[in-house]
Every structure is written in C-alpha cells, then in structure tokens.
Amino acid sequence: MKKISLISLGILASLQFVNAQNISSKKWTDLFSYNNVLAMKEDNGRLIAAAENGIFYYTVSTGEITKLSKANGLHEVKISAFDYNPQTKIGLVGYQNGALDVIAPDGVTYVVDIPIATGYNGSKKINHISITGDLAVISVGYGVSIFDLKKKEFKDSAFFLSGGTYEASNEATIFGNKVYAVSNTGFKSHEMNVTFPVYSTWTVEMAGSYNHIDSEGILSFSSPTTGYLYNGGVPVPLSQAFTNVHDVVVNSNNIIVTDQNRVYTFNTNGNFTNTVTFGEECNTATTVGSSVYGGTILSGIKNESNNSFKPDGPYFNYAYKISLFGENQLLVSSGGRENRFNTPINNLRNPGFYYFNGMEWIYPSYFIGNTTRFNILDVVSDPVNPDDIFFTNYNNSTGRGIYKMKYNSGSKDFTFTKNYDLGTSDFYTRRPVGLTFDDSNNLFTSIAFSGEGAAQGPLTAVGAYDRATDTFLIKNTTISGGAAQKPLYYEGLLWMPLPRVSSFLAYDYKKTINTSDDTEYILNQSNGFASNSNGTVSVAVDKSGDAWIGSDAGLRILPNAASEIKTPSTATVEPIIIEQNGLGEELFRDSQILQIEVDAGDHKWVSVDGGGVYYLSPDGQQTIKHFTKENSPLPTNSITDIKVDRKTGKVYFVSYDGIVTYQGDVADVTSDFGNVVVYPNPVVYTQFKGKVTIKGLAEITNIRIADAAGNVVHSAVARGGYYEWDLNNQRGVRVASGVYFVLMTNEDGSDKATAKIAVVN
C-alpha cells in the first residue's frame, strides 16, 4: 500500500491547475476541420460536439453553429476525449498530450498536471472522460484519476499496475459510489474510498476485453462485438450483435450503441427500439428528443435525414503548403516528406488538397475512395485559366506526377483532366515537388530524382510547361543529391533551395520554355553557408532585392541577389549578427528555417523548426513578435508554410496539425499613407498596459507626437507601414493623462496624416 501511494505521489504530487495566459485574441482565427466528431453531449436541444481541434455547438431548433478552439479560448489541439454536464454547464476537454481544459461559464481553465508528471513515462493521452455531478473520472494509460470540477483539482488516482506493467483504462464512469472501468483485461470496479488507489483491491466484474462504458441512471458497457446492460450487478447482453462497436452512450431515455455501420438504440430496460444509418462511419451518436444524431468521421453531426451540421473548414486538418489567389481564394496541399526530402509521408487518410472559393470550403470528390496514393506537395491555380488547377503528386508508387484538374463552380467540384507522368515509369525518378508561375504566366516545376549524377545519384531537375503541346519539358541540372524545394520566381530566375546538399540553385531559363540555352548558378559552403549545413530549405526575396535563404543550420542573406547570383565565384551569403549581452551572435544559428515570408512593409516572418514563428524588422535586427504554441494559437512549433495577403495583412500559418490565421498590422504599404488607424484608443491603463499601434502608415513615416500645449513628447521614424508607441516621452517616462496629437509625413513630405490618442492613467 505504501508503495502504491509513493507511486501516486511521484506522478501527481505537484497537481495544480493553471489559469493560463489568454493566448487567443480577436486577431486570430482557426481554419480547422470540424468533420471528425469524437464525442457529443446534448443540453436542452443543443448538441455540444468535440472534433479533433475544437468544440462546436449546434442548436437543433435554429441551426445556429458556434465554435471554440485554440484561436478563441482553448489551450491545445489534438482533442482525444470530452464530456459535458448539462446541469452545471461545465465541460472537460482532454488532449493527446494529457492536458485538460475545464470549460465553465466563467471561462476556460488549463490543467497541466498529467503532462508534467514525472513518475509515469507511458502514454499520457486522455483516453476518455465521464462526468457525474461535480466529479469526472479520467481514463489514461496508467489507469484512472478522479477530477473535482468544482475545485479544479485532482483527487484520487488508481494505477492499474500489475507485474511491473501499467494497464490503460479504455473508458470509465462513476455509477453510484463506484468507479467502473473497462480495459483490455476486464470490466472492473471499486468504491471511491481510501483503498481506491490500491489496484489489488479492485474487483473484476467480468474478465475479457472491453472498450466502451457509460452511465446515467443505468450502466451499459461493451466489447467490440457485444453490448451489455449492467442490471442488478449482473451483465445482461443486449439483443443485437455488433460488428465493431465505436461507442456506447447512455442518457435518461436510451442506450445508444454506435456500431461500425449503423447506430442502435435500446430503452433503459435493454430492449431494442430502433436502428439508424447515416451513410458513413460514425464515432458516436446521441438523441435529441426522439431523433438520433450521429457524430461522423467525415461530415460533422448528421441527423436521420443525412443532413450535415458543422462549422465550415477544410476536409482534414493535415496541411503542408498554401496558395493564395483571386478574391480570398485558397488552395491547400496536404503532403509531406520525412526529413523534408526523400521518403514521402504515408498519410492513411490520402487527403489530396482542399479549396476555399472565397465563401466556403470545397473538397474534390475525386479523392474520396480513390486508390491512388496522393502525397500532394503543392497545388496552384493557373492565372491564365483560374479554374484550371495543377498539383504535384510526390510519391514512389504508381500515380506520381503533375495533375491537372478543372473546377466547376456550378457543381462545386473538380474533374480530372490529365496526369503528366513527366516521361518516366521508373520507381524512383522524376518526383515533382513545387510549382510556380513567372510574370508571363509560364508554369515551372522543381523535380527530385531525375536521371543519374556522377557522385550522389539522382539529379535535381526543372520542368517547364508547354501550353501549345500540353506537356512538360524536363531539364536536368548538375546538382546531385536528387532533392528540391518549391521554386521562387524573381527577376527572370527560378530560385530553388536544395535540401539534401549544402547548396542553393538559381536557374536562368532565359524567359523561354526552351531549355536548350538555360544557365544555372550554384552557391555552396564556399559562398558562406554554415559548415554544418546539410541543405537549404527555404527562400524569400525582400523589397531591397536581398535573398533570405534558410538552411537546416541557420539563415543567410544574399544582398542584391539578382545581380550577385550571376557571379557565384564571388557572391557571398551573410548571417545576421545581433547583439546579445554585449556580444555578437548569429541569428538562428544551427536552426532549421522551414519558411520565410516577406510582408508589405518588408518585415520578415520566419518559421523555425520546433521554435515557432518570428516576426522580424526589415533588417532582421529586431524581433517584433515571437509566436509559439505555448503563447499563441499556433497548433505546433513547426510551421510548414507562411503566406501573407498583402492587401489585408492577414497571415496564414500552415502545419500538419491545421491552419490558423493572424490579422497583421501591415497591409498594402506604399510610399503614401493608407487608412491610418490607432488602437486601442482611448488607452485606459487599468484595461491595457501594452503599446499603442498606429497602422496604415507610409513605407517610411516621420512621426511627431505632441501634447495639447504643442510640446513634442515623442518622435520617431517608422518603417514598414506601422508603428508601436510605448506611451513614454523622450525621457522614457510614461506621459500624463490627456489627448496627444500624432503628426506624420511620408519620406519626401508629399503626403501627411494626423491622429489623436487619448491616454487615461
């Protein structure tokens, strides 16, 4: 007994709840998928459903749908369990990393006890949550824990430890004064008393492998093929046989068993009453009145008429690259490569790509049930014919190549047009990676594993699309190693990172699709890349014409890139040196730079693998913002793509765990002023203690801030379309309460703007 207690303390001694900082704000929005409903609860005609990355609420009578995610209140993604008490209006969300969110009328509380526990090193995923009154029983890899929802703290835990091995609780529920749990070895129980933590005192009610359990006045549980009503201490089999039980839900009127292909309902005596099919597989189901609603894997909530209800979003959360085009239209690819080169990601969902038409998300029916293995690394719209969509299928099996599809706005679907296999049937060769258009709307692709190099095997290649013959013309480069990244078009050149070799390629196609006279320019470690770099990964060119090149070992700048790249023997790439504690230090030294994006004000967004996203000043010397999954709605610290809508300032962050957007302050920056906005305004110290933002500025703006008497209290030069004032005067002291006048001119004095700021200390 003492040994078990010590184990309990080792795991949960530091139990605490955290009212975590509010990591969301009105600037953030999620573009998550809400198709895969994991759990549901009914509350007075409203269904509350948990999807992979958020909770949504559906009111049956009005059709109203609202959602809650990391962008507006939750603290994590990858939900694995959920329950809700209609009487107390409190819900509990469990995540794959073991964290919990308590959703109550007074806010959301973040609970991190299980993730930080040190005494148990197995899976900390929350397998299941069941709420009874003010208590929740939580099933984890070590067994079960009781959580007090009112106090927001853990009570007792029972560790299913036998023979030195932990056994997971698949699900558990509180029924009377007992906790009943189902595991792979049995249906077991224990009173909530002083011996609850001692696993040897638990009773095995029935041996076997059981996966689901629930209770509300009665108790029901199941094996994968048989359901039971626990009647007077005796498990009584339900009358129907099942194929593969996905869930058991008990409410005041029914037992609802979700089988692989249909949903069965039974009355509280265990008598069969009805069966419903939803045309697809469901994770769970429940009833509202006499109607059954299914929580599907692919379509959100469905009613018995097969109508679907969910927040709009992409088909799946898995995303890799994004393309912006037209009026607020998006194309999202869903592929990936292990270690950014070579082996394609094997995503069993075979997702394809997702399309947002400016109003709603559309998923091509072409991918549903398609047996071709799709690993789409890039998808773009043709500027000449925007309804024509090209995408790259990067894999080492049948069906790879570049695909062309056509969008039909009437049917809101895509039809297959052509697969360009790039002229080879070899198992490994010619895998297309990325696509880009030049300023004449010519389409180019980067190609990995094309032909054989002298030293390191397959070569990197470039493909040019010949519209006249509807074919791709392929030209091998001299780069051995076989890998490539998405190319960037700039000043008549294709700029291409090379992720398997410490080199970088600029490809001069002479503004024609004829490959016979093309020239390549190659930079390598002799040009200044880090000696420990094994490949370049990303590239962007800023307003000054400097190329920002990200590698797996840091960041380099090629000044005056379009000119310097043409003399690679003398070109030099340079690190950014910043001052840290009085010493010079290389920015992002030894970090893998996944993506670089330049906004309208020439600021840089930089994604660092495992390090989140940095927002840098135009010269990179100042970090303006640093977003991580810990301090922002980012779903992960490895963001695979960033895109900025320069007209609106909206920033898209793409990852394998989903997409979120951030409304930036820099949009459509020119040499003149735009719509100058100051916020917050007024600035009330008790409500806001940060900096005041002035946006809509010219690219270079001279700023003077004066008090009501005309005394200048602050002056500055703003670059990049916006400015943040810390409300301090020239001496570094916070200004007094009052109205302050902002007087602004652009660089040459040809345009002016004014604003007022009210300060209340």
From TrEMBL:
| Residues of the signal peptide | 1-20
InterPro entries annotated for this entry?
Answer: PorZ_N, WD40/YVTN_repeat-like_dom_sf
Print the keywords alphabetically. Signal
UniProt-listed Pfam families: PorZ_N_b_propeller (PF21544)
Keyword rRNA processing attributed: no
On whether Heme is a keyword of this UniProt record, the answer is: no
- Residue ranges of domain PorZ N-terminal beta-propeller in the record: 49-194
Name of the protein in its database record:
PorZ N-terminal beta-propeller domain-containing protein
